[in-house]
Amino acid sequence: MFFRMSMKSLVICFFMLFCVLSYSQEKTIDSLKNVLNHSKNDIDKAELLNAIASEYMSSDPKQMRDYANKALELSKKIKHRIEEGNSYLNLGNVNVILGNYPLALDNFSNAQEIFEADLITDLKNSSEIKKGLARSYGSIGIVFSEQSNYAKALQYHLKAVKIYEEMKDQARTARIYNNIGIVYQAIKEDFKALDYFIKAQKLQEKTGDMTVGITTTNIGNIYLRQKNYPKALEYYTKSKNTFAKSSDARGLGELYNNLGSYYWQTGNSSEALESWKKAIVQFNSIDDKFGISDTYSHLGNFYFSQKKYEEALDNATNALKLAKELDVLEQVMNSEKLISSIYEKQNKLDLALQHYRYYNVARDSLISHENIRKSVQAEMNFDFEKKQTIQQEAHEKRELLYREQNKRYQLQTIFGALFVILVFGIIFLIYNRTQLKKTLTLQKELAEYEQKALHLQMNPHFVFNCLGSISSFIVQNGTDSAIKYLSKFSKLMRLTLEYSKESLIPIDKEIESLQNYLELEQLRSDKMFNFSITKSDQIEDDIALPPLLLQPFVENAIIHGLIPKKEVGKIDIDFSLKEDSLICMIVDNGIGFEKSQELKAASVSIHKSMALDITRKRLEMMGTVTSKTSKVEIKELKDENGKPIGTEVILYLPIQYIK
Questions:
Q1: How many Cα neighbours within 13 Å face the side chain of 535?
Q2: Which residues, at least 6 apart from 292, have a Cβ–Cβ distance to it below 8 Å?
Q3: Residue 543: beta bridge partners?
Q4: Is the pTM of this model over 0.70?
Q5: Using the 8-state DSSP alphabet, how is residue 636 labeled?
Q6: Beta strand pairing call for 543-545 and 505-506
Q7: Structure confidence at residue 15 as a pLDDT band (50, 70, 90)
Q8: C-alpha 238: how far from its chain's center?
Q9: How many domains does the chain have?
Q10: DSSP code of 564?
Q11: Is residue 492 domain-shared with residue 381, that is, in the same domain?
């Protein structure tokens, strides 16, 4: 109950905090449209379009999206970077409202990229840019909070609050404090949550911010959870007084729901019922069906505890009807379970059994929905981290380029003032040659850093797949086998950690790692395949290659080549030398490359493996760093009749040595 209230409060703060503030909130949509129709300046039009989009936030998300897209198109056309960032923020807000969190995160990330880039180059508008950047951070924190990724939510909320504190923007600082408190409240760290709620309350009271009612309600919820009833009532009373002034029906409805719980816990049944009835009145006034369903659920549980089964059944049925209409699986599940319990108490066992079955169906659907959500969240987080890494690299490049451009401009100005044209020409030539050498060196260093970044992406992918294998193995093979599997996995992880920070490792280390990995996969698949690893005598011990380079191809051979074959298969791995290249060959006798591609194309799996793409990029970076050929060949093996008999993967790597 308390957590749901917190998430609603967070969404309310989100709407109030991240709307466009360029125009007074008293201006209606009609007046803004009127100004837009008479405006001839594209800069003003872009700002007006964003302002209108913001006004539609609480009433019509589709209209908000249409105006935000128009603002984005115009801002890009006239290269108005601040309004382009604001357009992405508005589009992100729309997608939060519509529940499309991956797209919302992408929109907010685009806004972040724009404002971070302009913060370096556009010093004239730095104040406006900082506001946009803080809003971007806060919005990203909102998305991660909604997805229950509280560590990331805190990270971005703290980035936002730092900017607002520096700008002495007390109103926005208070609301970010409130959101941070909500995150701590969700993870049951009540002491930290109270600290941030109270800091938010003080600032809101100082600035006359009416959202203080939400904050004091959150404080009351924490005290109620701690069974500190006097303190809970004190803060609920403050909230009630605030909401009475602000006419916040949703906030007041949630407050009455919590007051009902307070009175129930303190033994005042009549006041509890009165509070819940008031909650229904408030929610009905704004047609908040979720709030009404939640209140009916409270009433159903209350009457059930009082053994008033007919009243309990009426309220539970009403809660169920609204929950089904809203497709809120958790509320459907709880309502079905309560109805089943009521019928059981009334000795209507057939109906009790029927609704218990409905409860099981809702519970299974909720579990399935949650599993899908977690899978989507994992992929969303992976894509976001990858994009953030790329943005960080681009940001660093822009800073470096900006400094270099300033330096070049200053030098050119000094040389132009001091030397004649001929002397200046000679010096300019020497300068350009020096700069070219620096640029080539910088490009090589950047290529090395990109290769390291790709390697850092490879490790989490490898661990993620291994943990997935462990989970499947535990379910399929039992505890004893799982312990054996985990033992081998831990050995493999120790080997991985030994060289996780190295760009190159000895070839024997890579062979040992592959040996351990293949043993793990062999154990998990109940020995559905055999394998061999061979190394040419010509290969010296100090010949090296990047870690985890071959593992994705071996994994691909097992998953897409051997497992679909459904009979004992074989994988052969061979290392040899040819001229100036280290040859790594992986051969399997699976279903063949073309057939495996067809199966992958027909798959409906949510997860999309990035391992092979990352590995190909690592090979490109290796070629850039070493200035030598680095490539991969994949071909299908066929018998004399043209029937597929397996797949052959050959990696041509430049010969490198451990320094």
A1: 15
A2: 280, 283, 284, 318, 322
A3: 657
A4: no
A5: E
A6: antiparallel
A7: very low
A8: 36
A9: 2
A10: G
A11: no
φ, ψ for residue 159, nearest 5 deg: -65, -45
Task: Indicate the residue type of 605.
Answer: S
Q: Is residue 339 a contact partner of residue 372, using CB atoms and an 8 Å limit?
A: no
Q: DSSP class of residue 225?
A: H
The mean pLDDT value for 374-378 works out to 59
How would DSSP label each residue in 3-32?
A: HHHHHHHHHHHHHHHSS--SS-TTS-HHHH
Residues 111-134 pLDDT 10s: 999 998 888 777 888 889 999 999
What pLDDT digit, counting tens, does each position of 25-61 carry?
Answer: 445 688 888 888 888 899 999 999 999 998 888 678 8
Would residue 197 count as lying in a domain? no
Enumerate residues 6+ apart whose C-beta is below 8 A from 198: 219
Examine the fold and report which residue of 407, 439, 471 is the final residue of a domain before the chain moves on: 439
Assess contact for 456 and 619: CB atoms under 8 A. no
The tokens describing 439, both together, are 């640029």
Average pLDDT over residues 647-653: 92
SS3 content of the chain, % helix, strand, coil (to 5): 75, 10, 15
Longest dimension (CA), the chain: 106
Hey, how many other C-beta atoms are within 10 angstroms of the C-beta on 602? Answer: 7
DSSP string computed for 277-319 = HHHHHHHHHTT-HHHHHHHHHHHHHHHHHTT-HHHHHHHHHHH
Task: Give residue 626's domain range.
Answer: 460-602+609-657
The predicted model gives 536-564 an average pLDDT of: 87
Report which DSSP code applies to 654: E
Q: Is 189 inside a domain boundary?
A: no
SS3 sequence of 608-624 = CCCHHHHHHHHHHHHHH
Residue 245's contacts (CB-CB under 8 Å, 6 or more residues apart) are 210
d(CA 466, CA 409) in angstroms, rounded, equals: 53
CA gyration radius, the chain = 31
Average pLDDT, the chain: 82
